[in-house]
């Protein structure tokens, strides 16, 4: 009995030591082991931010194009405002400075990380800002060049690119529930082809080649951006806390958005000035049917809404992965489509069967991913 006692004690210790290694490898499918264990509140809050932010921003964008009588524009003014729309997606980042400072101040007394990380992050943020501005510009241009239904179909390809980039850049492994969620999200995006858009071009303005390429490269840029954000979290920001007892803070979400948006805003402002869109802004504001106040509120509302959207999008990458962030972003499209029908009276736009089925597949897509998260959290607790 005395000889068997040490053997009985050693074996459970060896088995217990192997469990974290196994979980850490498998966690690359959905959850990084360095992330906060009680991440469900963050996931739900981020999801709400994506839905609310994107819905309001798209509604205000439709309101803007509808009131400036975009359909009356001539060929030479077809792409007016594309830099402005790209700028609106990032220019509201100063709103995040206060929560960023508050959250950062709580951990001010913690030891700082290697200066090399800061230099590397500076370069990465510049690259991400460039990608963010290019994506916003291409997306705005694509919607003005081709029918919105075709743009939506092409832009849905981001759900093909994001898993590919995530697999090779972020080393994410996929399981059946993630694949099911992606397939349903792709179906959801494709079914929103019947949606309407206030800035949709008429037949004389159509340019299928240029608009299709713009939509495709916008999708690639968005997917690449999400995967690079996750790479920043996994390779740099989360490693700051490995040698400390503190957990990764949500302030890192604001950090990524602020510095990337700063670069994107500068690029978009330069593009806006070179294109001379500042003169168009003055002309549009003076001739806006609802008055200058409504015009300013529509623009400011878009800037604020996009920041809410980015907090949710980057928050989902922080809490889970770039794949879930992309899925939630796309499954919000049917909600926007229905809201456009309710608030605008576009010709031939109604609550058809495509929008109804898209809403169902959107719910199923999100449910499949969340179910897998629930199972993985439950398994990791044992």
TrEMBL record:
GO molecular function: purine nucleobase transmembrane transporter activity; purine nucleoside transmembrane transporter activity
Record keywords: Membrane, Transmembrane, Transmembrane helix, Transport
Subcellular location as annotated: Membrane
Principal location listed in the UniProt entry: membrane
Listed GO CC annotations: membrane
Topology of this chain in the membrane: Multi-pass membrane protein
Transmembrane residue ranges: 43-65, 85-104, 116-134, 146-165, 177-199, 211-233, 253-275, 295-320, 327-347, 353-371
InterPro entries: PUP_plant (IPR030182)
Family per similarity comment: Belongs to the purine permeases (TC 2.A.7.14) family.
Protein name: Probable purine permease
